[in-house]
Specification:
heterodimer; A: mainly alpha; MetI-like fold; B: mainly alpha; 72% helix; 0% strand; flat
Chain lengths: 314, 313
């Protein structure tokens, strides 16, 4: 049953190097003006507000800055303290990794799968999409409230369904061995809709002729997707992959809404916020955690950046 | 994996016109049961996904005493919308809704404009430093936002503004300041997404317009933008949702409670001594409405497959 790869597909699929072609019109003075102004403004904004402030924070991470007293350089003391005497740091790293594994292996593939199912003429298609997208539209406060509604020990719906209403309810959110898994379910609930929407928008831009050609050549739907659509969607796959990593490492709002990220729900972002914005105002220390978070994030995505470099120098 | 196989089958059936007549005849018989499985599966998933939100809505219609006594999974003693008017008034929502729109609406438009132009310039024009720019934006988007809080606060206080832009006379405590950080941060994300989407747009499209002598601006505005509509629609929805729901930047970069966005008005609904969760549920539904309206309004853009015709040509 294995269909041979479709030749027409191979010929049209790799379109990923648009800038390589020779036929190119000279840029006029007006073109150059438009390009420099728009690109310039964007770059300046990004350099000043994002990179500039981040670099300052990297510097602050080597100090004992607390917002009030004079800044003193302390070298790598903050980093040393985080790695040796902060018991919450280990839990936070573990939770962020769990988050990554859960979203990467379950939520993201499921979102892609649903997008593929929805990418066809279906009745109620808009209803399905809307239902899946709705969780993405909800804010922090709403999600926090929903977790209570569904999982709380004495009034929660799940305990009611299990018949545990009078004092013997399961403490889904309070039990530190259990709560991270419950939170992951909610995170996945949101993530699936997010991925589905992005992937669906990508699928819409895949040339339908590709799929038709594959079908004519006798490929079944699974083969059509895996061998024709999925490879043609490579740029979109990269987006989805990077987003999954970003979401996992930046996760914050759900745990913050439940119990401000304590008691088994520690995350790196929560530790950063607690230290920088919290009452202790240990800005240097918090910045050091943020720098570590940044290094991990960049580490994960470095492969992607290397890929860009390779593609561009082809 | 089994679901993939069973529910995936109908894909073969959908492009019917394309398949030769003989094939259609042999396939048609298998189609029906697979379609039924697909619909049952999707409907189950959709309702599963909706269930928590329906519960939220249900809770917002019930009096607090009722749910306190019987729990949230029970039949109602009475249903009413009176929590909605209370949430609207007590949370001063009319006012804070406007604040949210001042921050989010211009920010979404500017972000999408800057990002789509940059993505266009990176994929279609031979501008210098393409690699560097792409990495600058992509990696910038990966930096943890909490990292920028302290320096940004100090920076904003130092930048002075005329009084008609900001009544605080600096970027701090102004709508503009909050919008700017949203724009800067989200442009990184949108450049990254749009760059990758634009790679999938056939090169022939712009080449034809270049032959016709179109300027860079025209290639961007009349050729690329219309084709990128599905991606722009999806991004506009997401960006509006994020900027509208954001609370971190407003909290850190503004001090006048009067300027806080609508997400913060939910806090006004929490009493000092006890929290009426059903009132909060009503407030939550109201707060979520604009994001849903934007989604429904833009949904057509990214599901209609408008691009398909253009991409083929």
């Amino acid at each position: 049953m294995v269909a041979p790869p479709v030749p027409t597909v191979e010929a049209t699929a790799p379109r990923t190097a648009p800038v390589r072609r020779g036929r190119r019109r000279r840029l006029t003075a007006r073109d150059i003006l438009v390009l420099s102004v728009v690109v310039g403004v964007t770059v300046v904004l990004d350099l000043a507000l994002i990179w500039g402030t981040s670099v300052v924070s990297v510097l602050l991470s080597f100090t004992n800055y607390d917002g009030i007293s004079p800044i003193k350089w302390v070298g790598i003391k903050n980093y040393h303290d985080i790695l040796t005497i902060n018991p919450e740091f280990g839990t936070a790293v573990r939770n962020n990794l769990l988050w990554l594994v859960f979203l990467g292996l379950i939520a993201t593939p499921f979102g892609i799968f649903l997008a593929v199912l929805l990418d066809r003429q279906l009745r109620f298609s808009r209803f399905y999409q809307s239902a899946l997208y709705l969780p993405v539209a909800l804010s922090l406060a709403v999600i926090g409230f929903l977790t209570q509604l569904i999982l709380s020990q004495d009034q929660g719906v799940v305990n009611a369904i299990l018949g545990r209403t009078h004092g013997n309810g399961i403490d889904f959110l309070g039990d530190s061995r259990l709560n991270i898994w419950m939170v992951l379910l909610f995170a996945g609930w949101r993530h699936v809709g997010y991925i589905m929407i992005l992937y669906l928008a990508g699928l819409k831009s895949v040339d339908p002729a590709l799929k038709e050609a594959a079908v004519i050549d006798g490929a079944n739907p699974v083969q059509t997707f895996l061998r024709v659509v999925f490879p043609a969607m490579r740029p979109i796959n990269v987006i989805v992959l990077v987003i999954t990593v970003i979401e996992s490492l930046r996760a914050f709002d759900i745990v913050y809404a439940i119990n401000t990220g304590r008691n088994g729900l520690q995350l790196l972002s929560v530790l950063v916020v607690d230290n920088i914005i919290g009452e202790a105002s240990r800005i240097g220390y918090g910045s050091a955690i943020a720098v570590m978070l940044m290094l991990v994030t960049l580490g994960f995505v470095i492969t992607y950046l290397v890929n860009i470099l390779r593609e561009d120098s082809r | 994996m089994t679901t993939v196989a069973s529910t995936g089958t109908p894909a073969a059936a959908s492009p019917k016109p394309a398949t030769p007549a003989g094939e259609v005849a042999t396939r048609k018989k298998r189609v029906r049961p697979a379609r039924v499985v697909l619909y049952v599966f999707l409907t189950t998933i959709a309702f599963g996904w909706l269930a928590p939100i329906l519960l939220l809505f249900y809770a917002s219609l019930r009096p607090y005493q009722d749910t306190q006594l019987h729990g949230y999974f029970s039949l109602p003693s009475s249903l009413s919308f009176k929590y909605y008017s209370r949430a609207w008034n007590q949370g001063d929502m009319a006012h804070s809704f406007l604040n949210s729109f001042y921050i989010a609406v211009p920010a979404v438009f500017i972000t999408l404009f800057l990002a789509s132009f940059l993505a266009f310039a990176l994929t279609r024009v031979k501008i210098p430093f393409r690699k560097t720019l792409l990495i600058l934006f992509t990696a910038g988007n990966l930096l943890p936002p909490q990292m920028m809080v302290t320096p940004l606060y100090s920076l904003y206080i130092k930048i002075s503004m005329p009084s008609f832009v900001s009544d605080s006379l600096s970027l701090y405590d102004s709508y503009l300041g909050v919008s700017l950080i949203h724009i800067a941060f989200q442009t990184g994300f949108c450049v990254f997404v749009l760059y990758n989407y634009m790679l999938t747009i056939p090169i022939e499209l712009t080449e034809a317009s270049i032959m016709d002598g179109a300027s860079v601006w025209r290639q961007y505005w009349q050729v690329i933008l219309p084709v990128a509509r599905p991606a722009l629609g999806a991004l506009a929805t997401l960006e509006f949702t994020w900027m509208y729901n954001d609370f971190l930047w407003a909290l850190v970069l503004m001090q006048t409670g009067d300027k806080y966005p609508v997400t913060s008005s939910l806090n006004n609904l929490r009493g000092t001594f006890f929290v009426d969760f059903n009132l909060l549920a009503a407030g939550a539904v109201i707060v979520a409405l604009p994001t849903l309206i934007v989604f429904f309004a833009l949904q057509r853009q990214f599901i209609s497959g408008l691009t398909l015709g253009a991409a083929k040509g």
